[in-house]
Task: inverse folding
């Protein structure tokens, strides 16, 4: 007789061929990313169900999950009509009695007999004077049985047509078949060392880390809280450790493979540069400059991020670095996310370097073809020392004569992964990226794992404060008369509104324009104010759909005081510096992110006058009921806001994790697991210092995991 041969289940067996699945279900599981048996094993629960401990009858609350242990004292099967039955029973213990009911399950009558001890659980409701459980979960107890320890049950992410119990069964089956075949990549000594290091960092854990088989099993079907915790730690640690090994390897590679020109500071150069600034540097600026100079003196590329709140004076540090390169006979390039900002940097540099021999070029969308060609030519021949520009720079294949430094301003606008690679003559320039959106520590260690950080916390002296107000009902008149008073005193004002309705697709580089419907377009606001409350003032309009020339002209008019009020989209978010502007009205504020609002606010704290920002929302909800806006009012510290933003929105959103080049984390959460992350990072670093290529015999499996996950992403060389 022919017997159908089922091939044995292995890690790569498609889900469709797993016991009890079939093509129809397999399709649904595929939507959860479950294609093979291995996928199922590593489909980690998103949460756990912890059955409530047994309760006394008089402590039961309607609708609240509870369990109860007791004895059946009455049971009756009644039929209401043909084919419709109801089975009812009473469960009693020393604290009282409840009723349980099962509809159309006549077999219950055979199962649940007088005198039987049971555990029931569910959410009761009150029926008459008695609590009633309809279709409770039911466990039979033997005469001697004590109450069984309530099991912690995994909760998985679901998709249409897949129930929690389907997944529990599927995972259970695969664990049964393959649980003991999961391959271990962390050798025993590593599991011991890691656990020691975790303990030293105050993390509670007993013995060495769980082996992979125990960890996976306990994560899906935990025996108790402690084993669940231990399983989580093992898997979180592994995930972060693999990432940190990759980052440590890349750091090493960068410092050994790539060659950069060493650009050393001498005291003569130092004082020559410092003399050009019209003010004393802050301590933080001095410290950052020291760190930057040390990096640039090395023959491998600097990879440093300078973070500092709006107005903390990052440009000074960048200018110093650029001049240091020039003093060493090398070129520097500076990139800005918008044309407005590029031009402003260009002007700043021209001012600082007036009457010096340093030659500066500008490259951006609006300059003429001929001018552009000439500038590119000059960069290649070395006639230009400093080149400022927008992303236009990134796309052209610009050759440099001798590039020593690349500064990228407002990095959060680019997306972290879009690392510019500019090379010149086989050497790599040093990189300095600047961001006004500070990076929370957990993120600095993951997304930016191989970047050094310098931070400006202190603001330059003489900075006026900014007052932030959330508009209440009926504030419009009051606020606008306040704005008019300031304008009459000679100050200037910003009015920020959400985006303009796109008319044509713009190829402009002001790509900070997001997609989306518009609510109160700047054009309408502009028209309303010009005719209404601000009719006696000169008002300008600025938005991303204007041509670069128009934008520049308007900015210039505002900077020179020819216009009093600038109605704008968030184009002004980055970098614009007009010290006389002291009042800002933000309309439709609920549509802006925290970091963005803070950037905007930075525009009115540039001078010596107190700044005022008032926030209105478009929706029905007053600004004070918006969590983000309330935070914005309460704190003026960009670092605090960034942490809060990170909490509210998650890291992906803040810096575009998709673009970051890092593999998505499946079980670790860098915020919650920051201590584990720190231990993983330190251990990875130590290991890579001793064994840069992970050549140790018992690390080979770990190494291939590092390469599989990060080899390509981080350019680590051969993907195993
Ligand atoms: P951001 O960090 O936001 O880019 P900027 O570099 O544009 O800040 O600096 C903001 C303003 O502060 C500029 O007008 C700059 O000239 C001024 N500034 C920078 N450093 C100092 C300092 N040490 N003392 C006084 N003013 C400073
Ligand atoms: Mg800046």
Result:
């Amino acid at each position: 007789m022919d017997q159908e041969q089922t091939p044995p289940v292995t890690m790569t067996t498609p889900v469709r061929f797993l016991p009890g699945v079939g093509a129809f279900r397999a399709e649904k599981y595929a939507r959860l990313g479950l294609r093979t048996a291995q996928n199922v094993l590593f489909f980690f629960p998103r949460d756990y169900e912890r059955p409530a401990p047994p309760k006394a009858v008089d402590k039961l609350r309607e609708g609240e999950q509870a369990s109860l242990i007791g004895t059946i004292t009455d049971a009756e099967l009644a039929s209401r009509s043909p084919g419709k039955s109801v089975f009812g029973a009473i469960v009693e213990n020393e604290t009282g009695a409840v009723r349980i009911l099962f509809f159309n399950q006549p077999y219950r009558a055979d199962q649940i007999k007088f005198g039987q001890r049971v555990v029931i659980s569910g959410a009761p409701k009150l029926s008459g004077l008695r609590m009633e459980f309809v279709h409770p979960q039911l466990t039979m107890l033997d005469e001697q049985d004590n109450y069984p320890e309530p099991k912690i049950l995994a909760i998985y992410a679901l998709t249409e047509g897949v129930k929690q119990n389907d997944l529990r069964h599927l995972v259970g089956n695969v664990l049964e078949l393959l649980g003991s075949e999961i391959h271990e990549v962390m050798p025993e000594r590593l599991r011991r060392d890691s656990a020691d290091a975790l303990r030293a960092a105050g993390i509670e854990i007993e013995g060495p880390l769980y082996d992979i088989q125990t960890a996976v099993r306990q994560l899906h079907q935990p025996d108790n809280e402690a084993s669940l915790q231990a399983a989580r730690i093992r898997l979180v640690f592994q995930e972060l450790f693999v990432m940190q090994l990759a980052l440590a390897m890349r750091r090493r590679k960068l410092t050994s493979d790539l060659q950069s020109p060493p650009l050393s500071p001498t005291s003569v150069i130092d004082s020559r540069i410092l003399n050009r600034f019209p003010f004393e540097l802050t301590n933080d600026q001095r410290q950052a400059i020291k760190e930057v100079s040390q990096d640039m003196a090395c023959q491998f590329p600097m990879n440093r991020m300078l973070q500092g709140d709006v107005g903390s004076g990052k440009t000074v540090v960048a200018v110093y670095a650029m001049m240091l390169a020039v003093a060493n006979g090398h070129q520097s390039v500076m990139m800005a996310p918008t044309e407005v900002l590029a031009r402003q940097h260009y002007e700043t540099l021209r001012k600082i370097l007036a009457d010096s021999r340093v030659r500066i070029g500008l490259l951006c969308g609006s300059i003429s073809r001929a001018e552009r060609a000439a500038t590119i030519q000059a960069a290649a021949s070395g006639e230009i020392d400093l080149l400022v520009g927008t992303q236009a720079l990134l796309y052209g294949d610009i050759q440099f004569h001798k590039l020593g430094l690349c500064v990228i301003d407002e990095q959060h606008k680019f997306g972290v992964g879009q690392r510019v690679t500019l090379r010149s003559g086989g050497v790599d320039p040093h990189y300095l990226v600047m961001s006004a959106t500070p990076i929370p520590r957990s993120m600095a260690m993951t997304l930016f794992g191989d970047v050094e950080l310098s931070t400006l916390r202190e603001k330059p002296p003489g900075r006026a404060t900014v007052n932030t107000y959330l508009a209440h009902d009926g504030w419009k008149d009051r606020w606008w008369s306040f704005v008019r008073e300031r304008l009459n005193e000679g100050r200037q004002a910003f009015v920020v509104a959400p985006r303009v309705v796109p008319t044509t697709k713009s190829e402009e580089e002001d790509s900070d324009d997001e997609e989306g419907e518009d609510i109160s377009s700047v054009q309408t606001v502009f028209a309303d104010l010009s005719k209404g409350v601000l009719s006696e003032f000169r008002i300008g309009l600025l938005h991303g759909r204007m041509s670069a020339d128009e934008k520049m002209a308007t900015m210039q008019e505002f900077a020179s005081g020819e216009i009093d009020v600038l109605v704008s989209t968030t184009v002004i978010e980055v970098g614009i510096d007009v010290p006389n502007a002291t009042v800002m009205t933000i309309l439709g504020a609920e549509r802006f992110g925290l970091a963005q609002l803070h950037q905007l606010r930075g525009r009115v704290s540039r001078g010596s006058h107190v700044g005022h920002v008032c926030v209105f929302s478009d929706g029905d909800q007053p600004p004070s009921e918006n969590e983000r806006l309330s935070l914005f009012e309460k704190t003026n510290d960009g670092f605090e806001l960034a942490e809060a933003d990170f909490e509210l929105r998650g890291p992906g959103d803040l810096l575009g994790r998709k673009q970051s080049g890092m593999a998505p984390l499946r079980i670790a959460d860098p915020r919650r697991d920051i201590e584990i992350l720190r231990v993983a990072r330190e251990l990875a670093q130590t290991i890579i210092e001793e064994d840069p290529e992970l050549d140790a015999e018992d690390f080979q499996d770990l190494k291939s995991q590092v390469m599989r996950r990060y080899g390509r992403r981080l350019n680590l060389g051969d993907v195993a």
Confidence is low (pLDDT under 50) at residues 413-418, 502-517, 651-660. The pocket of adenosine-5'-diphosphate (ligand 1) is lined by residues 279-282, 285, 308, 310-316, 436, 460, 577, 606 (CB under 6 Å).
